[in-house]
What we know:
- The chain has helices at 13-24, 44-53, 62-69, 77-89, 92-99, 202-211, 216-220, and strands spanning 2-6, 30-33, 104-107, 112-115, 142-144, 152-158, 161-167, 181-187, 192-198.
- By secondary structure, the protein is an alpha/beta fold.
- 47% of the residues are buried.
- The mean pLDDT is 96.
Amino acid sequence: MHVGVLSDIHANRVALETVFEDIEDQSVDALVHAGDVVGYNPWPAACVAAIRERSVPTVMGNHDRAVASGTTFQFNDMARAGVEYAREGLSDEELEWLADRPAERHAFDGRVHIVHGHPDDPDRYTYPQEFSTDMVRGDADVLVSGHTHVQGCERFEEEGEAKIVMNPGSVGQPRDGDPRAAYAIVDLDAMEVEQRRVPYDVDRVIEAVREAGLPERIGTRLTQGR
Length: 226
């Protein structure tokens, strides 16, 4: 079984549509999302709709929670602006959907455990160099994490069985120096991960950010993958 793994769309419809187009050309049986559908960019409703239409199992990211609850504690100006923009633009029903996202999920008969940051703390930034086999809990074979916007994966052998800890990277706002939209495909039979990057029209996002009255840096930093 091949699972497309997404995270941190951050209301970037252009990047998300490009990723979906790429997924159509791959052998993908199902999708999961590791949180932060909204925040920063100017298409929160479109991205929520795209995930809901495909019934993608999704956990709650910190920006999702901020939008749903109306709080922006410790957010910088760009993050705060994106949260406020999403909260004003989403319907009550869409906000309720966000608020109902769980902090963690198990999928595919428990083989895949999905969190936003770390199994012990959904807001903890966990970078690839920190991945360890003890992050894979219980009967799970794969731990999917997001939050850092940095793509990476590690495969561990534990008592003759493979375990994977992975972050697919960010669809809508990569921060690993590569501006292309990021996602991954995990093969649950072979226990292998393909990390994918897809170029998209960043200039279109920059213009939309400007037209929405959001901080210009939200768009321009996408050119550097920061």
